[in-house]
Amino acid sequence: MKINCFFDGACSPVNPGGAMGMGAVIYYGYEQFTLSDFKHQANGNTNNVAEYSAFKWILETLIEEKLNDETIEIFGDSNLVIQQMNDEWRIKQGRYKSVALQCKELLQYFPYLTIKWIPREQNDFADTLSTIKIKELGLFKDFS
Length: 144
What we know:
A five-stranded mixed sheet has the order 3-2-1-4-5. It has a single domain, classed as Ribonuclease H-like superfamily/Ribonuclease H (Nucleotidyltransferase, domain 5, 2-Layer Sandwich), CATH 3.30.420.10. The chain has helices at residues 47-64, 79-85, 97-106, 124-136, and strands at 3-12, 19-28, 31-39, 72-76, 113-117. Strand 2 and strand 3 (31-39) form a beta hairpin. It is of the alpha/beta class and 144 residues long. Helix 1 runs parallel beside helix 3. It is 33% helix and 27% strand.
């Protein structure tokens, strides 16, 4: 059975340094795992750190649930995450570097994993999960 996963991240009202939201969903048959997490404004927060944190949560959850040997597709609208995790772009210096390297390390446990970019409008549930708390606190600013 194929597992479909979606992730998104947000940093608002400023990027970098804003409040950070992470959202992700894993669909496995009739089961669904979701993440909607929030971190208060801090210097280390960026949209890329948020995106990678949501992506990492997916990998860790799949490993914890012993689903990492299944056929898995992960979708996200962060071109940076997708290209770097697919070895199309190098991981350079940036606040996201540490979590990106952690994700890269976790990928070795997934023999049947593909990572694909999708347009933002096809990632609406993960996007909603990533911005719930930021919007509740009145901190959301759309940068698109």
